[in-house]
């Protein structure tokens, strides 16, 4: 059991989950099944799987929303996800892939094909990347990219470093002196305009997510 790859499958049809359990255990996997997002996320606090299988059409949070949350969680962001749905429209497949899914299967499908897809994704699973996540904001330091809800941001080098500093210190008030020292590698010398102007442009680029950056009057800034 210890050496088996662990699959978490989410589907609101009990019969489908029984097929997953029977077929995938027969193929040498360990399987845990869930009928909704609540059960899945509760189990994720205990143990992470090697791969997810997500049905799109679910009560409560659908497969797309679950996928978004997984990709925003640094502990799950690089775990392969296979989306499954009876919907055969190309737009559904594209949406899932754009949100970060690794593969897509349309029902009905053969269990041998499913097992083969799982094995293929496990073989090519991404190596962990250096990611920093705060709510809906993600920094991928390996790619030197920042994004909000999956949408890539176009930041200057200093805006990127400023955002990274705030995210690394979420919940901690950073003085303008500290920001100047860490981002500009220079002493503050009573000058606040540089920091404030960069905060202003960064907030504009973050859009609605700019609400996470709070101004602490006469002190500096904090991400919360």
The H-and-E topology, N to C, reads as EHEHEHEHEHEEEEHEHHEE
How many helices? The count is 8
Could you tell me the mean pLDDT?
A: 87
For the sheet with most strands, the description reads:
5 strands, parallel
Low-confidence stretches: none
Shape by Cα distribution: elongated
Cα distance spanning the termini: 41 Å
Portion of residues within helices: 25-40%
Percentage of β-strand residues? 15-25%
Number of strands: 12
Radius of gyration, in Å, reads 21 Å
Helices and strands: which structural class?
alpha/beta
**Cross-sheet strand order for the largest sheet:** 2-1-3-4-5
Give a short summary of the structure.
The protein has helices at residues 14-26, 37-44, 63-72, 90-98, 111-123, 157-168, 176-183, 193-206; strands spanning 6-10, 30-34, 51-55, 81-85, 103-106, 131-134, 137-140, 145-148, 151-152, 174-175, 213-216, 220-223. By secondary structure, it is of the alpha/beta class.
């Amino acid at each position: 059991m210890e050496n088996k790859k662990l699959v978490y499958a989410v589907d609101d049809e009990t019969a489908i989950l029984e097929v997953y359990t029977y077929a995938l255990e027969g193929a040498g996997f360990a399987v845990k099944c869930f009928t909704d997002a609540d059960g899945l996320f509760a189990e994720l606090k205990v143990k992470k799987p090697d791969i997810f299988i997500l049905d799109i059409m679910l009560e409560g949070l659908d497969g797309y929303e679950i996928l978004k949350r997984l990709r925003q969680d640094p502990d799950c962001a690089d775990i392969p996800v296979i989306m499954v749905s009876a919907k055969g429209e190309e737009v559904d497949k594209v949406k899932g892939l754009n949100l970060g899914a690794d593969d897509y299967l349309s029902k009905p499908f053969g269990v041998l094909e499913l097992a083969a897809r799982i094995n293929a994704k496990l073989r090519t699973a991404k190596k962990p990347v250096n990611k920093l996540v705060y709510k809906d904001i993600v920094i991928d330091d390996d790619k030197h990219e920042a994004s909000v809800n999956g949408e890539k941001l176009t930041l200057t080098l200093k805006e990127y470093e400023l955002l990274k500093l705030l995210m690394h210190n979420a919940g901690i008030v950073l003085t303008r002196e500290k920001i100047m020292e860490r981002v500009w590698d220079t002493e503050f010398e009573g000058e606040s305009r540089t920091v404030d102007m960069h905060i202003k442009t960064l907030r504009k680029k973050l859009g609605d997510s700019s609400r996470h950056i709070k101004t602490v009057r006469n002190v500096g800034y904090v991400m919360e």
